[in-house]
Design goal:
The complex is a heterodimer. Chain A is an alpha/beta fold. Chain A has 19 helices and ten strands. Chain A has three domains: 169 residues, no CATH class; 76 residues, no CATH class; 268 residues, 3-Layer(aba) Sandwich (Rossmann fold), CATH 3.40.50. In chain A, helix 12 packs antiparallel against helix 13. The two termini of chain A are 45 Å apart. Chain B has a domain of 133 residues. Chain B is 19% helix and 27% strand. Chain B contains three helices and six strands; from the N terminus they run H-E-E-H-H-E-E-E-E. In chain B, strands 1-2-6-5-4-3 form a six-stranded antiparallel beta sheet. Chain B is globular, with a radius of gyration of 20 Å. Classes of the chains: A alpha/beta, B alpha+beta.
Chain lengths: 629, 205
């Protein structure tokens, strides 16, 4: 785990790391020139068929060609993909955090705060100087007087001004502490992302030392054996690399995975898709159309496998029934009720997968865009990553992270809230998209809370999702073709907490963040999210009960948070639960939830027919912020 | 406080016919109608207790003009005035009539007494959405194919409902999907009308 302090980051020479990356890139280029000479000067020159024509000569040429290819593969895998990219990614990420740190430290020092505590849990507190200016001299700095809302005493003899300071000492204390908490929040987020970048670079470089390149395969007894064995081993090696990437054992970032993938031959890629679609489909950094092909294959296989399993169990149950009716003893090792229970589980999985399969067969009825399956699973409540339109080629990409209650069942037709939402978002983006293409992605690759109480009040599920969401976002950036897309991350309810915590802990390489009906996003200010606060948007309709469940930090629609807001309507019938305001916590008791049912309904109203929030979300996702109301 | 999604006049299966009839009537009322490019049937979730309730659904029928038609003043401006007049004359509640931040886009919505909402949206592409609100979900086998309006040929590629295997896995009835004249509801462009001049203008001026 990275041991970098804020001072280490402040003083870090990022340019030196970047230079190292470029130096390795130059080395790769020069070495590739040499291997190319081997092909042109030796294979096609001195040892060409014009000079040496025999079976042995042909095999020698093929051997040198394979050897050269191997050298280039190792150059690509190690010097290019690992060393160069690790250094450049680290320098870029650390420079971004360093810039933000310098800005923040400037503010902290200017306002007489000080940074204390452990490097993984910094605190930012008012300094003794600031304390003395308030409590001893009754002469707080101008910026603090402005926050409290009184005039700064004009001189040491301004007794009236000092008396006013004295009467508001409590406010001075609270507001000074509040600002310190915001600085602390932002500092911790910066350092968390810097530690991640440091750890990732260290892991990539360490992996090289611990897993050096395999030596060329053993020679066979003859050239025939040699070449056949070599080809077979190369194929197995590529498959082993893919498996290590899939299992997370390779420590390659999505960008490095993409470089590795692009370095494979067409035949190697096709072989992986055909033989190991279960590894190719879920892997961030592999192009979207390839993942879609692989995932659809796996989905078909799983549905077929479940059908077979269901048929087997039904057969066992029929046999038990037949024995029972005939009065024969039954020797089945599994009871009828256990089989029944298993059958119901399998049928549910089968129906949900078939429903998902059905949803992605035909193009979107309004936009004509194809669906792309980027991931799915039935483990736990189930997972689904589906895109309307191809994010690799789209001008805009909008990733929707759902919240409480989201599961695979919700991705199909009968409980189709989630897929219907991205369908609507895709339609809205087309209506307002200036003729550009917008890909709209459902990202349900985490275990969302089951209900609005219990798990939803804990950040553990969001924290567990942060790494995967960060990786998915980096994968979209790595596989994008042409100019980078305008990438928006939209989180609803607990999904907004998941997005905010991923931004805080991992850093999300997005252009905009949109928080809808949020219970808090894990940070207290937009500045701690790692993007320009001008590109942070939040909305809550006036009857959304989540107002009373702000349990994961500062309200992102509040002025203190420092982002933008847009209008949403409460389109569902129901009264405001506590018209005079109040402080009733959502999870205080089950009865309280039932009592505010109308307002709870409005927590999900943001995609309703005609809700202005739909248009506003489309304006942000299509880069038309000026239209937002 | 409600314990269930709000009561409606229709079930899902019953709602499509009055919704589609509403479109047909509206198209009839709009002069020189240029024809829609596409129709689709969609559903949005209804929730209860903060979670989506699969016993209810909210229908959204979408009719969209082509990009070329969407660029015309007729559908971007003139039809807004026509709809204000048409819905006012019908006594509908026009509950929204506003422009986006810079005035580039416009939305107008009117709701009928039976709860059906009409939403005319002037975006980059102009469209009409007809929305049911929350209605009790029906089994797909109960749904009846309703031919489209506004120049879309039933069963054509532009009538995406007819090709949606979820709603109509066996396809739509061929007699209902028969081709119709896409301009059957269109009206002639207005222009100078000849008239018989009086023998003298004395007393007419």
């Amino acid at each position: 785990m990275s041991d970098m302090s804020w001072k280490d980051l402040r003083d870090l020479d990022c340019a030196a790391i970047q230079s190292g990356g470029y130096a390795w890139a130059g080395y790769v280029d020069r070495m590739v020139e040499q291997s190319e000479r081997l092909r042109t000067d030796v294979i096609a020159g001195h040892l060409s068929i014009e000079n040496y024509e025999s079976d042995t000569a042909t095999q020698v040429r093929e051997h040198i060609d394979l050897f050269t290819g191997r050298f280039e593969d190792d150059l690509s895998d190690y010097a290019q993909t690992r060393v160069r990219t690790a250094l450049l990614e680290a320098s870029e990420a650390l420079k971004a955090e360093q810039d933000e740190l310098l800005e923040l430290v400037g503010l902290i020092e200017e306002r007489a705060y000080e940074i204390e505590g452990d490097k993984h849990d910094y605190e930012v507190n008012p300094s003794g100087e600031l304390h003395r200016s308030i409590y001893l001299h009754l002469d707080p700095p101008q910026w603090l007087c402005d926050r409290v809302g009184i005039d700064k005493p004009s001189a040491w003899y301004d007794l009236v001004g000092e008396a006013e300071v004295m009467s508001r000492l409590g406010d001075f204390y609270e507001l000074a502490k509040e600002l310190g908490a915001q600085y602390q929040d932002r500092l911790r987020a910066i350092m968390s992302r810097a530690h991640d970048a440091d750890d990732e670079a260290a892991a990539a470089l360490t992996a090289m030392r611990e897993a050096p390149p395999e030596l060329p395969p053993q020679l066979g007894a003859t050239y025939d054996d040699l070449i056949d064995d070599y080809k077979a081993e190369l194929s197995e090696e590529v498959a082993a690399e893919m498996e290590a990437i899939f299992n997370g054992e390779s420590d390659l970032s999505p960008e490095q995975v993409n470089q590795w993938w692009e370095g494979l031959s067409d035949a190697e890629r096709e072989a992986l898709i055909a033989e190991h679609p279960e590894w190719v489909g879920p892997t961030d950094g592999i192009p979207v159309d390839v993942r879609d092909t692989a995932n659809r294959t796996v989905l078909d296989d799983q549905i077929t496998g479940l059908d077979q399993e269901i048929a087997d169990i039904e057969q066992q149950m029929d046999a038990i029934n037949a024995d029972y009716e005939a009065g024969r003893p039954n020797d089945s090792p599994v009871s009828y009720s256990e089989l029944q229970e298993r059958l119901e589980e399998l049928r549910q999985d089968r129906d949900q997968l078939a429903d998902l399969d059905s949803r992605i067969q035909e193009p979107h009825p309004d936009t004509g865009q194809e669906y792309f399956l980027l991931g799915f699973g039935t483990e736990g409540e189930g997972q689904a990553i589906v895109s309307v339109g191809n994010p690799d080629t789209a001008d805009n990409v909008n990733v929707y992270v759902p919240g409480t209650g989201a599961d695979l069942g919700g991705a199909g037709y009968d409980n189709g809230g989630l897929m219907n939402r991205i369908d609507s978002m895709a339609y809205d983006a087309m209506r307002f998209g200036k003729g550009e293409e917008t890909a709209t992605v459902l990202w349900l690759d985490y275990d969302a809370p089951d209900g609005v109480v219990g798990e939803a009040r804990d950040t553990a599920l969001a924290e567990a999702a942060a790494d995967d969401l960060g990786s998915f976002t980096d994968g979209l950036r790595a596989t994008a073709e042409g100019e980078p897309s305008n990438l928006t991350m939209t989180g609803h309810s607990y999904g907004s907490t998941t997005v905010g915590i991923a931004a805080r802990d991992e850093g999300l390489d997005v252009d905009n963040m949109v928080f809808i009906g949020s219970p808090g996003v894990g940070v207290d200010s937009a500045e701690a999210l790692g993007i320009d606060p001008d590109n942070v948007w939040a909305s809550r309709n006036p009857d959304d009960v989540i107002e009373y469940g702000m349990v994961h930090g500062e309200d992102p629609t509040g002025e203190e948070f420092g982002g933008n807001t847009f209008t949403s309507e409460a389109t569902r019938e129901g009264e405001h639960p506590f018209p005079g305001g109040g402080n009733v916590l959502l999870g205080a008791a089950g009865g309280a939830v039932a009592a505010v049912d109308g307002a709870v309904a409005n927590h999900s109203a943001y995609w309703d027919d005609g809700n202005i929030s739909r248009e506003n979300m489309a304006f942000i996702a299509t880069g038309q912020e000026g239209e937002v109301e | 406080m409600e314990e269930q999604p709000p009561a409606t006049d229709y079930t899902q299966a019953e709602a499509y016919e009055p919704m589609e009839q509403g479109v047909a009537d509206l198209v009839e009322a709009l002069p020189d109608f240029p024809g829609f490019e596409r129709r689709s049937w969609n559903e949005l979730p209804c929730s209860h207790g903060g979670l989506d309730d699969s016993d209810y659904t909210s229908i959204e029928i979408r009719y969209t003009f082509s990009e070329a038609v969407s660029a015309t003043t007729q559908v971007r401006e003139d039809y807004l005035d026509e709809l204000r007049t048409y819905w006012s004359e019908l006594g509908l509640d026009i509950h929204r009539d506003d422009a986006s931040g810079t005035g580039k886009y416009h939305s107008i919505e009117a709701r009928r007494e039976d709860g059906i909402n009409f939403y005319y949206s002037v975006g980059y592409q102009v469209g009409l959405m007809i929305q049911s609100g929350c209605v009790p979900r029906s089994d797909v086998s109960e749904l009846t194919y309703i031919p489209p309006s506004g120049g879309i040929v039933p069963g054509s590629e532009q009538d995406t409902v007819a090709h949606d295997s979820h709603y109509f896995p066996e396809g739509v009835p061929t007699d209902q999907a028969a081709a119709i004249d896409p301009f059957a509801t269109a009206q002639p462009v207005s222009g100078p009308v000849p008239f018989d001049p009086p023998a003298s203008y004395e007393g007419h001026l």
